[in-house]
Amino acid sequence: MKMARQINIKKIKEKTSRMSLTLALSIFVFIILLSAIGLTALGLWLLTKAGVIVDINGELQLGQVILFMSLISLIIGGVSVFFSSRLPLKPVNEIINKMNRLAAGDFKTRLKFGDTMSAHPAVKELTASFNTMAAELENTEMLRNDFINNFSHEFKTPIVSITGLANLLEAGDLTEEQRIQYAHAIKEESLRLSYMASNVLILTKIESQTILTGVSRFNLSEQVRAAVLLLEEKWTSKNIDLLLDFDEYLIEANEEMLKQVWINLIDNAVKFVPRCGTVELEVMDAGENLCVKVSNTGSEIPPEKQERIFAKFYQADESHATQGNGIGLAIVKSIVELHHGKISLNSGNGMTAFTVVLPKKATRYHT
Hints:
This protein is an alpha/beta fold. The chain is built from eleven helices and nine strands. The protein has three domains: 2-138, no CATH class; 149-208, Signal transduction histidine kinase, dimerisation/phosphotransfer (DHp) domain (Helix Hairpins, Orthogonal Bundle), CATH 1.10.287; 212-366, Histidine kinase-like ATPase, C-terminal domain (Heat Shock Protein 90), CATH 3.30.565.10. 16% of the residues are buried.
């Protein structure tokens, strides 16, 4: 109720500011008309004083008055409108020019008026809306370029490896050990391509969904522990100190989708934690929501990269030294949002943590 009232108040303020701008423009036009009439009256008075529009008896002639008033009003009004119209049309021309620059691909362009005009609420709203749109387009273009570059790199690398190894096998003159080694490498790269393709299909499927389906009630804590066991080989090989200490919590959600969330987050933490480091998992009650936190010690993610960490094929490690393809976190974010939840990242003081907040009960779903 309070939120609805705030929205109504905001709409009223927006309408008021826009009406005030319309009123200001109307007053401007009215002043031009008054100026034209005033100048016409002054010209008429001067002509009368000069004796141009008087008859023999010294009285004004109606026909001459109308003629002179019409001619002078036309001349003065035309000149006034010609010069004065440039003032209100200047911001319109500015907007058109900026929009043309956006259309031409210059997404760094921003709209800015003078201090006097910028002080008006409606102009402030227009400027803010335009600049927000330009910033979003710039960000979208950046993500698109990153997606294309990273996508090309991630798919090209294993293909090049497979081709090179296949050529070596075809050439022959290899020891049995080399042949087995190369065949194993081809198998690994093929599985990597298959994994990436599967993830792309999963992400596409999730992003196309608007309604959460396949909802059931299950033990979330048990699901998180099961995800840890699935990745046991990875975290034991790095001698990681794994901390799990939480109670049992139930949730209504798509079990298979959430399983993917915990596997991806835990796998991501294990991947970037240093050998003998620490990975901690927490499940907490947050009223109507459940909060799951996956944190690890090790290198931090710079603030400028945190905003893009959930983008498709984006990797904070731009050297691609670590395994991965930058799809996992994009899948996590899409699944969480489909469940009407939120995911956040906090990185600093030698610790990186991903926190997922999910509603305990699904409000809208199909079984």
